[in-house]
Hints:
Elements: H1 9-20, H2 24-37, E1 42-48, E2 54-59, H3 66-71, H4 99-104, E3 108-114, E4 121-127, E5 130-137, E6 142-148, H5 155-159, H6 164-181, E7 186-190, E8 195-199, H7 205-213, H8 215-219, E9 221-229, H9 240-248, H10 250-257, H11 262-270, E10 272-280, E11 285-286, E12 292-296, E13 299-301, H12 304-321, E14 332-333, E15 336-343, H13 369-386
Parallel strand pairs: 1-7, 12-15
Antiparallel strand pairs: 1-2, 2-6, 3-4, 3-6, 4-5, 7-8, 9-10, 10-15, 11-14, 12-13
Helix pairs in contact: 2-6, 6-7, 9-10, 12-13
Amino acid sequence: MGKIHVLPERVANQIAAGEVVERPASVVKELLENALDAGSTRIRIQVEAGGKKLIQITDNGCGMVRDDAMLAFERHATSKIKDTDDLLSISTLGFRGEALPSIASVARLHLETRAEEEAAGTVLEINGGKIIRVEEAGLPLGTSITIRDLFFNTPARKKFLRSESTELSHIASLVTHYALAHPEKHFELHSATNALLVAPPVTGHRERVYQVFGRETLDQLIPLAAVQPLERIGLPQPPPWRRAADTCGAGALAREASSSPPAESHAADFGEVRLHGFVSKPEIQKLNRNSIFIFVNGRLIRDRLIQHGITEAYRDSRFRAGVGTGGADEGTAGTSVFDGDWRATQRESRPYSNSHHPGRAKRRWSAPRPVARPARASGGRRIHAASGGNSRGHGAPRI
């Protein structure tokens, strides 16, 4: 008899959960992104014991019909993509269809959901990957997912969780990040004892920064904005069949018929990067880079090259204006909030790598340089002007 066999589905889901669900904050991240993808405008998060005992996320999104609610807990079941071509134009925060079955396999899950076209909602209970109850109920529009006893059936994983205060701080940081990225939405984060964050919808990022950090921090920030056309160099190439279609198809005929100059057609083909946000004054320094918030298309990212561009802008400004004595080694940038919009054609509209796992906050970029350049250039000019220098003629070098 052979030695190789297929693992049972329950075991496979628990193994997958080890990659997606690292800690309670990982659960909050996946469910919060699902709520945002569902078009929610109001999201409420309730946690107990740092998320170890309870995580509840309630939203007013589109909800799910009964069949979709049950199918959502099958591995690789998703509404975000249908074929490989969709991978090149993903606009949602999640798309793999791994999170829900992985979470349900290591916790006690209770789901309540109702779609707008349904008269009654669906209640679904899953314990350790096994569906134990499915029934109809009168529910409001939207979805509420309650996670209890995380890692109750994997005690080895549960043993490696940090203290309740540490796990709660990771959750609070995550919710704060997404509240900064989406000022038009309502966010609430509650623990068993108090409200950690209540951020009603506001008109812009400036008002959201005031809500999260307060007036004192906002007064120390300098607004900035930049627009840069995307360049062909460094961007991922489209697959061969798309290059052939562009060369021989209607797109080529349209370009030949167009009377616009080559530079304009090039910009129209490959889109542009729009950067806006805030940087702190150069005299404000932090011991690490945790106060640098970078978002691309509404998603929090951590990219070394972009962070390097921002910190280099501060170092250049400190040297020019005489701020600081030891250069960038004695500290890094203060509170900085950047929100970038990646506007490109469909074939190049996903800036971060598809191979990177959704459970990790750090995103690997295919081409970070087009964002790092305007971040350093515009940031350096505004920081230098705020430090009392003349920003004219001091554009930051290319990186």
